[in-house]
Design goal:
This protein is an alpha+beta fold and about 450 residues long. Helix content is about 35%, strand content about 25%. The chain has 2 domains: about 5-255 and about 310-395, no CATH class; about 405-460, OB fold (Dihydrolipoamide Acetyltransferase, E2P), CATH 2.40.50.140. The strands form 6 sheets. The chain has a 5-stranded mixed β-sheet. Strand 18 and strand 19 (about 455-460) form a beta hairpin. It is globular and about 70 Å long.
């Protein structure tokens, strides 16, 4: 879970229960660990030598499962982003123990106290990770970024690379980064604005205890280095998606825009937070005005993130243009194969297409099977995330039973009114007969149960 941290283990007992409820695996079967040991010893033999290229990585300081490394160079008025992706397919044999387990897991599942990795640590945090302690096999995508931020996949190759540095979001300096890094980010942002993309970078939540002994959720906006790093991944995924679509193959990430009901609910949330959202302003334009450094703006950004119908995966279909509303583009996931099963297959398909070769039948067949597997994994991850947030909200309000809170109704459903507290990033349900979306209400907290992760309020006015 990247949206909520618990550095002081304040939620430890509740997280144990969540792991058990959702069957989050704690270890790998012995045969999978044995297969990882054999795979880690495999010597790259189909990779050109690109160890002279000055690749670096940029991730959280604590990360050791490094999917991406990058180098940047100028080409006339264009910039060339050389984006190296961990060559997971080199280590994972089809239908072997590693592959079978990866299909069962689908994704790396994150919780505040750790993760259940897609692959054993011997691979994901060692041999396949693009760490700066030796040569690593990778698939290097070269993405051409023109002055307006338009992207194109120029080439792809299997290559041996050597990262020069493991840069950290928290400590990286401009002088540590390749020339062109800031300009590349500026171009990608300009292209997003031109497309009308509504992609947001929500803040990270961190569980803390205040001076009175109560829990609280602090909001930490993304660092500039994080958003810039995300822009490189975005550019690569867009370029790969366009190349695959043009070749009439691929697996795409699609998402519909928030529907009318979701937007109405968000307007109620904005009202609860006293945010001025003019009636004639679209959601995407309103988001541009938000400052993630302001707690209520940040909380609203998190509400937007949770408001949509969710993204899903679809294989290529003749006559159907896959579309991701938040990106305002055709989009694919290719840049995190250590953490997402589908990316391994998208990377290999793009490698074939970029070199004028047909996509292998096994990969094309996988594209048909992957949506169900990935959607199931995404559903599990979303349920885990919701449970963790529920736990954090209960912890935050524990001991405050009997207190009154101001709230705004954001939606009406069969289970009562959905409300947003005005002073805290908490969403709950309450019986509120006659209330309409946007109605201010006063509530009394009657229960904050950490064991069941349930909050109960009663309406008092």
């Amino acid at each position: 879970m990247k949206a909520l941290r618990d550095p002081n283990s304040l939620l430890a007992d509740g997280l144990v229960a969540i792991r058990a409820q959702y069957k989050v695996p704690a270890t790998f079967p012995p045969e999978v660990e044995a297969a990882a040991k054999l795979a880690a010893a495999r010597v790259p033999s189909e990779h050109v030598d690109r160890t002279a290229m000055p690749f670096v990585t940029l991730d959280p300081a604590s990360s050791t499962d490094l999917d991406q490394a990058f180098a940047i160079e100028a080409s006339g008025g264009d910039l060339l982003l050389h984006y190296a992706i961990a060559d997971v397919a080199w280590f994972v044999a089809d239908d072997g123990p590693l592959d079978t387990e990866a299909w069962a897991r689908g994704t790396t599942c994150y919780l505040p106290d750790g993760k259940a990795s897609q692959y054993p640590r011997l691979l994901s945090e060692n041999a396949a990770s693009l760490l700066p302690d030796g040569d690593r096999p990778a698939v290097v995508f070269t993405v051409r970024v023109d002055p307006a931020g338009a992207v194109k996949l120029d080439s792809a190759e299997r290559a041996l690379i050597r990262s020069r540095a493991k840069l950290a979001y928290e400590t990286v300096q401009d002088t540590d980064l390749p020339t062109g890094f800031a300009e590349l980010n500026t171009r990608i942002k300009a292209a997003e604005a031109q497309r009308g993309a509504s992609r947001i970078d929500p803040p990270e939540q961190e569980v803390e205890r205040d001076a009175a002994g109560h829990y609280r959720l602090a909001l930490r906006p993304q660092l500039p280095s994080e958003t810039s790093n995300a822009a490189m991944s975005l550019a690569t995924n867009l370029a790969v998606a366009d190349a695959l679509y043009a070749a009439r193959t691929g697996l795409f990430r699609v998402m519909a825009a928030p529907d009318e009901r979701a937007v109405l609910r968000l307007r109620g949330t904005a009202k609860a937070f006293s945010l001025d959202w003019p009636e004639d302003l679209s959601l995407s334009d309103f988001q541009e005005r938000l400052d993630p450094a302001k707690p209520l703006d940040a909380a609203f950004m998190l509400a937007v993130r949770r408001s949509g119908n969710g993204a899903s995966y679809v294989p290529y279909r003749d006559g159907v243009k896959p579309w991701h509303a938040a990106m305002a583009a055709t989009y694919a996931h290719a840049t995190a194969p250590l953490r997402r099963l589908a990316d391994r297959y998208v990377v290999m398909a793009a490698l074939a297409v970029a070199n004028g070769k047909p996509v292998p039948d096994s990969i094309a067949a996988a594209f048909e099977r992957l949506p169900k597997v990935m959607d199931r994994a995404d559903a599990r991850d979303s349920a885990v995330e919701r449970a963790v947030i529920d736990l954090a909200e209960c912890a935050m309000l524990a001991g405050r039973e009997g207190e009154a809170f101001s709230a705004v109704v954001t939606d009406i459903g069969e289970n009562g009114a959905r409300i947003q507290l005005c002073d805290l990033p908490v969403v709950a349900r309450v019986i509120a007969h006659g209330a309409l979306p946007g109605t201010p209400v006063r509530l009394r907290l009657t229960k904050a149960d950490l064991a069941t992760r349930q909050l109960t309020f009663e309406r008092i006015s």
